[in-house]
Design brief:
With 109 residues, this protein is α+β, with helices and mostly antiparallel strands. Helices cover 36% and strands 33% of the residues.
């Protein structure tokens, strides 16, 4: 591979891996089973920023900032859930990046 092809591949990778934000709404038996802490640990492993919180309707909301690859991996983890949880659905929507979550992943109450 010549130098121009390597540079082009490097630039493409840099541009294609920009940070995005997503909001996930997880339904099922997901409260009271450690789902938020499970999400926190997964997000830290994947180096994703954001938060997880319980919603009044029984769902868990996870807001995440990361690369497309990181967010795809997080969604896969959320679809599985922790031992004791039963995930029936994960809805995903795009979100704006919130700079309040630049420093890591937290559990909101």
């Amino acid at each position: 591979m010549d130098a121009s092809a390597r540079l082009s591949a490097t630039i493409y990778r840099f541009v294609s891996e920009h940070k995005q934000a997503r909001r996930y709404f997880i339904s099922g038996n997901v409260q009271g089973v450690g789902f938020r802490y499970f999400t926190l640990r997964a997000a830290e492993r994947l180096q994703v920023n954001g938060y997880a919180r319980n919603l009044p309707d029984g769902r868990v909301e996870a807001y995440a900032i990361g690369t497309p690859d990181q967010l795809t991996k997080l969604r896969s983890v959320l679809e599985r859930g922790p031992w004791g949880a039963t995930v029936s659905e994960v809805k995903e929507e795009q979100a704006a990046i919130d700079s309040n979550y630049d420093d890591g992943f937290v559990i909101n109450y």
